[in-house]
Amino acid sequence: xxxxxxxxxxxEERKRKxxxxxxxxxxxxxxxxxxxxxxxxAGWALIIMVLMGFFAPFLSPYxxxxxxRNKDYENGAxxxxxxxxxxxxxxxxFVYAVERERSIKTNFRxxxxxxxxxxxxxxxxxxxxxxxxxxxxxxxxxxAFDVNFKALTFNKHLFGTDEGxxHLFGTDxxxxxxxxxTLHAIWTSLAVGTLGVLISFVLALIIGGVAGYFGGWIDSVxxxxxxxxxxxxxxxxxxAMAAFMPDEWSSEMRFFVISLILGLVGxxxxxxxxxxxxxxERAQEYVLAAQLAGAPSGHIIRRHLLPSFTSYIIVDLxxxxxxxxxxxxxxxxIGLGLKDPVNSLGALMQNVSKADVLLNYQWxxxxxxxxxxxxxxxxxxxxxLRDAADPYSSVKK
Length: 397
Fold this sequence. Notes:
- The protein is an alpha+beta fold.
- It has 2 domains: 44-54 and 182-389, MetI-like fold, CATH 1.10.3720.10; 72-174, no CATH class.
- Helices cover 54% and strands 17% of the residues.
- The chain has helices at 8-22, 25-34, 37-54, 56-59, 178-214, 216-230, 234-244, 251-265, 268-281, 285-292, 297-305, 310-333, 345-349, 355-360, 366-389, and strands spanning 82-85, 88-103, 109-139, 146-161.
- The protein has a 4-stranded antiparallel sheet with strand order 1-2-3-4.
- β1 and β2 (88-103) form a beta hairpin.
- α5 packs antiparallel against α6 (216-230).
- The longest helix has 37 residues, at 178-214.
- The radius of gyration is 27 Å and the shape is globular.
């Protein structure tokens, strides 16, 4: 009998099938996720924005607080670097110098003008204000509990000018650099969203898992608590929270309290979905087999029931991030959330509601673009992960 000779194409097909049937769940999810082009693009955009937020002090040429403001360029338009102008070509990018002087035409008020004859050349990896990539400060009012931990302290920045300032996104009314504030705001909003999601995620897994697995009176009590939390109106709660916060609280303390409140009110939806799924799955044969084998309830929920609900947990987790970011943004936008000197997307978006900004200072809307991009990136990544984790998804491998 003649031996079957495999062609390179058949051999490659056989290896691909073997790799598919021997792959782990994580490898299968990653393979399906990579086939979703929109999710991959959103994932790269999300990674870039997260890195921009984490390395915001390095990428920012100036301190985003009042300490780094440019008093000679208040409400200044974005400065675009050039390589050439009427004076000729320059291999190094430059911006024009900004001068502030009193003018007789404006009754000797201060007037800011751009001097097109003076160049301010951009330099890279310059020395500037000192910052710490890891900066944990905690001061609880009325107690002796005080934490001030800093690590990875540097004074190097990606770019700067040989003289004066450079403002890629312009400045606000107090002369603070909007580019620096936007990068720090992305990290602050992501940090609030992460902490809020972690709190709500843990509560949803515990409460939903216990209610769905045990049922009976335990389920009834937990569902009453869940419904009570869901009926709490958000706006009055946030207003009461803002009135409750003492003015002497530090920015870090306000940050933690807002994240805690967002997490405590954000868990009921996911908890109800987990509970509904476990009520159905707890009667399956593999659960009964685990019970007969003597497995404890916590092990059955953690190792058998919750993994069967992975796709829904993943998408809820990812969709919860933009919800938390939007909640923080809405709170700060109406003045109930984070305030100066903390930079958040909501705090930056407070200024865009003014008519004067709409007409004269359109660069104030740049943080809004980053907020929209951040929310859309989370949504597309969440949808891609849901399709990748669902074995019945229509996404082709």
